[in-house]
Design goal:
The protein has helices at 18-25, 43-49, 64-70, 83-86, 88-104, 118-121, 131-144, 199-211, 213-216, 230-241, 252-257, 282-294, 302-308, 316-323, 334-349, and strands spanning 6-11, 31-37, 54-58, 76-79, 109-115, 153-159, 161-162, 173-177, 180-187, 195-197, 220-222, 226-227, 245-249. It is 40% helix and 18% strand. It has a 7-stranded parallel sheet with strand order 3-2-1-4-5-6-11, sandwiched between helices. Strands 7-10-12 form a 3-stranded mixed sheet.
Length: 350
């Protein structure tokens, strides 16, 4: 008689990071995957519902009753909370509370989806403060301080910029320069060489954590595909597509003046009242974001990552070839798509 399938709960399962994790865990019949979602009829939820061994559960990851219910009978939890939507303060609270409830309910392995806090790594230099980074690290630090008494294993999966963002927030735009049409990548990143991660490989690292608890318990696995500068991204784009591309470094002021955000001085945390003094503005948050990538604060151990996932995609150029990247727009982050709708609404009123 075969052993029962492990039951995995994914919080944030319909998001850019969670959906690939769900798909990876259901590529065979080894796991039963539960996904908590506010809407079981959204396009992303319906896509997951079509997968084998996936159960959608209506509820909120910010509701204690829903969490108590959804953690019942679960073996492994992968938790990725949208701190960008709820703000740093709420993410710290709900990250800790989610861990506590998981332990109450007898979950065997808790996996926290994280981002590095460049603010902490830099020795708390204010130019690196980025709320949607910092909240995740604060939760990870709290988790790592919990007693290791064997009652619940924990792991942290720390990611970075998604390489797929090169089709959205970071995509190039055509310009005619001296009579020649070029694709121009613009960012306030200077000579920075930041890490990017391919989301399908992120999901494979998540599966490795689930399948190797004897190696992943108590580990913060910091993942990436490649650390690469924008000049090299433009060069790779030209080599892969045959379209000439360049990188243009811009200032932070130019970046915020470009209209990337409808109101750069509005508060990050669109589901929170904007009078909350714990919230940063988009200008504050994304200044820290870009200073992080510009000054190479975050490092990765690629030898370790090759050992864990030998078949991983090893460069942004390889990702471009694999996915047929053209620089054309494609939705990746729901929060950014929502900002796009806000930009359109603002333009219509102008």
């Amino acid at each position: 008689m075969s052993s029962p399938k492990q039951r995995v709960l994914v919080l944030g399962g319909t998001g850019a990071q969670g959906a690939p994790v769900v798909k990876e865990l259901t590529r065979d019949s080894k796991y039963v995957v539960h996904v908590l979602t506010r809407s079981t009829t959204s396009p992303s939820a319906l896509e997951l519902a079509s997968l084998p061994n996936v159960t959608l559960i209506t509820g909120s990851s910010l509701n204690e009753a829903d969490l108590h219910s959804v953690f019942t009978g679960i073996d492994v939890a992968f938790v990725n909370i949208n701190g960008f939507a709820i703000g740093e303060k709420a993410e710290v609270y709900w990250g800790i509370r989610t861990f506590e409830i998981a332990r109450e309910k007898g979950v065997k392995h808790f996996i926290w989806g994280c981002l590095d806090s460049s603010y902490k790594i830099s020795g708390y230099q204010p130019r690196f403060r980025t709320g949607h980074f910092d909240g995740k690290t604060k939760v990870a630090d709290w988790i790592s301080a919990q007693p290791r008494d064997g009652s619940m294993m924990w792991s942290v999966l720390t990611s970075c910029m998604y390489v797929e963002m090169l089709s959205e927030m970071l995509r190039p735009f055509p310009e005619v320069i001296d009579g020649e049409e070029l694709m121009v990548f613009k960012a306030p990143v200077g000579n920075g060489v930041p890490p990017f991660i391919y989301l399908q490989d992120l999901a494979k690292y998540a599966r490795w954590i689930v399948e190797n608890p004897e190696k992943s318990n108590g580990v913060n696995l910091r993942i990436a595909t490649e650390s690469i500068g924008w000049e090299e991204i433009a060069k790779a784009f030209t080599e892969v597509t045959g379209k000439k591309a360049i990188f243009r470094d811009i200032t932070l002021d130019e970046y915020f003046a470009s209209g990337v955000f409808p109101d750069a001085d509005a508060k990050v945390g669109h589901s929170v009242g904007h009078e909350d003094e714990t919230l940063q503005t988009y200008r504050q948050n994304f200044s820290g974001f870009w200073n992080t990538w510009k000054e190479n604060i975050l490092q990765r151990d690629y030898e370790l990552l090759d050992h864990i996932l030998p078949e991983r995609v090893k460069s942004v150029k390889d990702w471009m070839v694999l996915t047929g990247y053209t620089g054309q727009p494609r939705s990746v982050l729901k929060d950014y798509a929502d900002l796009g709708e806000a930009r359109k609404a603002a333009a219509a009123k102008a």
